[in-house]
Structures are given as structure tokens and as C-alpha cells.
Specification:
Strand content: 15-25%
Helix content: 40-55%
Shape: globular
Distance between the termini: 33 Å
Largest sheet: 4 strands, antiparallel
Radius of gyration: 27 Å
Strand order of the largest sheet: 2-1-4-3
Number of strands: 11
Length: 518
């Protein structure tokens, strides 16, 4: 259960552990001799095997050098105090559980891998996807008031942004993207997939609150889609097969290791926001292992992305979601019961997981403070000018309407598939809109008209996706970018931070490894 988010330097954001963790695993902790380079012990054969399996194509000499660097990063991260925070304890524990769980599943018999024909058939049979927007309200009355506004002609996106209690609505205006029915709780998903495209759904009630939804589009995957996605789908099939094996194992393990939630702790705090002291509160126990409230909240935020980070989860709901954490602990407990944690190859995998996490933590801290010479920045800026080039002009469609209601209706209809020209004819002011054919507009002149909040999607958002509305000099406006032309390269003085970040992304690992050679 690795945290896959990236730091600004391109390294995984990993939590921190204590140095005592290595002693618990039985691995040596080496202190640095005074005024002498840090020397790691000769790597054990199993560690060498594991690291060469993970990094295919690595020679034995390169693998040994990698192991030495990992040991040095571990020691230096500890010396810098990077391995003392609660999040490192969580991360290290999650890593141990993941390694042991994988070892346990690997020890169980399984079926042969799925064939390409089987994967294709499963891909084509996975059912309909729908693009859905969503408003979440605390009460039925709030949901009904929001519905009246939408039925009265206000844009769904506008109402979602202003009304929805889902925190993500401020960013995505209620848009959930493409989803399948199984991704949603039944109380919300069943009605969303029971109506035709274009329909409004709600208010309907779920454990999260009262919902409204708008169904914009629907689609089914085709054979051409499979051909384009084949490699990823074959890998995903292997993951799915492992999940089937995992689920079968857990049927027994859930009975052997029941989860015991602390309903008082779960009921006292209904948010998913991590607060000081959450790492000290025990949300539940399973197989002799405590699950902290902090760990549970991080898990909830991750799994509730589709529905947003709800701030009104009850104790029973939190307890049900905690089963996902409990499952990983159960698998690890089963591995220890079989003695798998004493096998040399598993101990080596545990060592590697822990050291890789410490390496990433050290790398992030090192690069945050790294001094990049001005000459290197200038050289990088000159070598890759297109990375620091501005957008010069946009081929843009514009619609200007006389009222906010009309521009919102136009935006809504375009997003539902109405051609731009038809939207201009139906909702636009012909005099203010001018020539409805797309034309090239200089970004510099557009910036004098359009606020920064809209310029960003115009410059970097998907092409062909309408942006707006905004109040302009001639009325309410929406835009549609069809093409972008490059402009001048920013001078180094105006993009130094971006050049530094890009340089460290390209050279960061080399610099980190060089620092570990010192």
C-alpha cells in the first residue's frame, strides 16, 4: 500500500519510520565511523537476488552498489531526523504488510494466467460507462432547492459549485468523469444508471447525504478500444487474477481474524481530516494489530475520491471501510503464522521495501535543499527551450449572450453535444459574438480580458472543452479552444523555479546517488 503521490522533485512521497524498525527486522544498523566514509556490509545473497529481480537488467556489481546506496540513504535519513514522524511509522507498517501479504498469496496455489481472448471478452463485457455530474447536500430540503434552480435554467455546474458539500465540487464543478455503476454506492448508482442520457436524477438519499445527478453521456468499449489498450489490460488482468486469489484467501482469514472497531472513537470524529493526536487514537484492532484513526482517515480519503471527501461519516460506515485495512493486516498475519517472515527471500524483500522508502525520503529532503549552479540552469534552459515556451495564440470560438441564464444554458447544451454553431444561433447575441467562425487570438491580448482562473484552462486544459462563463464588456461569454500555437520562450529570470524543478526531475536521482558516494 505505497503512497503513489509524487514530490515536486519527481520522487515518491514516502512517510518516515524509526531506526528501531530495522532492529525489529533483525537487520544491522551501521553507524558512520568518525571522518571515514560509511561502509555497508557485504550484501546478503537474498538481498542481491531481490534487488536484481526488481530492477531487471542490473548486473551483480551494480546491484551491490545499489544496496550500498540504500544503506547509506537509510543511515543519513535517520541522522537527519527524517525517520521519526508518525507518517513514517504508518508507511513502514503498510510496506511490511504489503510484502508479507504478497508472500502469503504467492505461497497459495492458483489458476493459470488469463489468455488474451479471455481478457478481450471480459473487457467488452464490462458494461456501460456514464459521464456524470453530481451535487451532494446535507438535507432533502437543500437538495430540492438546488433541483429547482437547475430546473429553472441555471447551469448544473454553477449550482454544484455553489451548493455541493462535496469538497471536490469547488475544483471540478460536480463533474465525476466517466464512471461505472459498480464504482458507486447502490443508493446513488442504481438510479443514475436507470435513466436515459440527459436526465436529472434525485434527490436520492445515501449514507453520504442527499444527491442530485446529471447524466451527460454514455459509452461502451469496443474491439478497437481493446487493441489500443491491450498491454495495459493484460497487466491489469494479472492484477485482477491476484485479487480473485486474494478474495478467496480472505474468506477464511476474516473469520479467523475478526475486526474489532472502537465505535466510540469512530463516532467522536465524523471527518476525514487528519488532526493532531489521531495517530494515538485506536480506531480498531485485528490480529493483534492496532489501526490508528490517522491511518483510517488516510484510507478513507483515498477510497472516497469518487464521492469526494465526505465530512459526515458515521461510525458504522467508517467501520465498514476499515475492513479494507484489516484485510491487509490479516494477510500479513497469515504469512507470519506460516513462518514466511523468516524465509530469507521474504526478509530480503522486507529490507528492500523499507530501505527504498528511506531512500525516497532522503532524496526528497536532499533535492529540496540542493543548490543548482546558475550555469547548469542556463544550460538546461537553452537545451530544452520548448519546456519553457509560452502559448502565443489560441484558435478560439467565442459565444456572447445577453444574460447569465442564456450563457449557462448554452454551456450546458454544448457539454451535452450541441454543435457550437447551433449554440451560437440559439443562445448567442449575433452582434456581440461577431463572426462565429473560430479565429486566432493572441494570448497577451486575451489576458487583458480573461481572469487568471479562466486563462489556465484555456492555456492548458483539454482542447474542445468549453470554458466559462465570465462577464465581459459585451455580455456573458464562454470560449472553446480548438488549437494552440507556441509563442516565445520565457527568459530564465522569469521561469527559474520551473527550470530548477525540470532540471532536478531529469538529474535528481544522479545527484542523490552522487551525494551518497561522498
Amino acid at each position: 500500500m505505497h503512497d503513489a503521490s509524487l514530490s515536486r522533485n519527481g520522487f515518491p512521497r514516502i512517510g518516515m519510520v524509526t531506526l528501531l524498525g530495522a532492529l525489529a527486522l533483525g537487520f544491522p544498523i551501521q553507524a558512520a565511523p568518525a571522518k571515514r566514509p560509511i561502509r555497508a556490509a557485504e550484501p546478503a545473497a537474498e538481498r542481491l537476488k531481490v534487488i536484481m529481480a526488481v530492477e531487471s537488467g542490473l548486473s551483480p556489481e551494480a546491484a551491490k552498489a545499489r544496496i550500498v546506496r540504500l544503506e547509506r540513504a537509510w543511515t543519513r535519513a535517520g541522522a537527519k531526523g527524517l525517520l521519526k514522524a508518525p507518517e513514517w511509522q504508518e508507511s513502514r507498517q503498510e510496506g511490511r504488510q504489503a510484502v508479507l501479504g504478497k508472500a502469503y498469496l504467492g505461497s497459495r496455489p492458483g489458476h493459470s494466467a488469463m489468455t488474451e481472448d479471455q481478457v478481450r471478452a471480459a473487457f467488452l463485457a464490462q458494461g456501460e460507462e456514464r459521464r456524470v455530474s453530481h451535487v451532494l447536500c446535507k438535507t432533502q430540503e437543500d437538495a430540492e432547492a438546488a433541483l429547482k434552480r437547475i430546473q429553472g435554467g441555471e447551469a448544473f455546474e454553477k449550482v454544484a459549485t455553489e451548493v455541493s458539500t462535496d469538497p471536490s465540487a469547488a475544483r471540478n464543478h460536480g463533474d465525476l468523469g466517466w464512471i461505472r455503476q459498480k464504482q458507486l454506492v447502490a443508493a446513488f448508482g442504481d438510479p443514475v444508471f436507470a435513466v436515459p442520457v440527459g436526465a436529472l436524477v434525485g434527490p436520492v438519499k445515501s449514507e453520504f447525504g442527499w444527491h442530485l445527478a446529471k447524466i451527460w453521456e454514455a459509452r461502451h468499449k469496443t474491439a478497437a478500444d481493446f487493441a489500443a489498450e491491450r498491454d495495459g489490460l493484460m497487466k491489469a488482468a494479472a492484477v485482477t487474477q491476484l485479487k480473485v486469489k486474494r478474495d478467496a484467501a480472505l474468506e477464511t482469514l476474516r473469520l479467523r481474524y475478526p475486526l474489532v472497531p472502537d465505535m466510540d472513537v469512530l463516532g467522536a470524529d465524523r471527518t476525514t481530516e487528519t488532526l493532531p493526536g489521531d495517530d494515538k487514537k485506536v480506531a480498531g484492532r485485528v490480529a493483534g494489530t492496532a489501526i490508528s484513526l490517522r491511518t483510517l482517515k488516510r484510507h478513507l480519503v483515498d477510497i472516497l475520491k469518487t464521492m469526494g471527501q465526505s465530512h459526515s461519516l458515521g461510525a458504522a460506515t467508517k467501520a465498514s471501510f476499515m475492513e479494507g485495512l484489516a484485510d491487509q493486516i490479516r494477510l500479513a498475519a497469515a504469512a507470519r503464522r506460516q513462518g514466511l517472515d523468516r524465509r530469507p527471500e521474504v526478509r530480503a524483500a522486507l529490507w528492500l521495501d523499507e530501505r527504498e522508502r528511506a531512500y525516497a525520503r532522503y532524496a526528497e529532503a536532499f533535492l529540496a535543499e540542493a543548490k543548482v549552479p546558475e550555469a547548469e540552469l542556463e544550460r538546461h534552459h537553452q537545451a530544452f527551450p520548448d519546456r519553457f515556451r509560452q502559448i502565443g495564440s489560441l484558435r478560439l470560438q467565442v459565444l456572447v449572450a445577453d444574460s447569465e441564464d442564456r450563457v449557462n444554458a448554452a454551456l450546458n447544451q454544448v457539454r451535452m453535444g450541441l454543435p457550437w454553431g447551433a449554440a451560437v444561433a440559439q443562445f448567442g447575441s449575433a452582434e456581440a459574438t461577431g463572426n462565429p467562425e473560430p479565429g486566432w487570438v493572441e494570448v497577451a491580448s486575451l489576458k487583458t480580458l480573461v481572469p487568471p482562473t479562466l486563462m489556465q484552462p484555456l492555456l492548458a486544459g483539454p482542447l474542445g472543452q468549453p470554458v466559462g462563463p465570465m462577464l465581459g464588456p459585451d455580455g456573458y461569454m464562454i470560449f472553446n479552444v480548438l488549437e494552440r500555437r507556441p509563442g516565445p520562450v520565457l527568459p530564465l529570470a522569469e521561469c527559474r523555479d520551473a527550470v530548477r524543478t525540470d532540471y532536478l526531475k531529469a538529474r535528481g536521482q544522479v545527484l542523490v546517488d552522487q551525494s551518497l558516494e561522498d
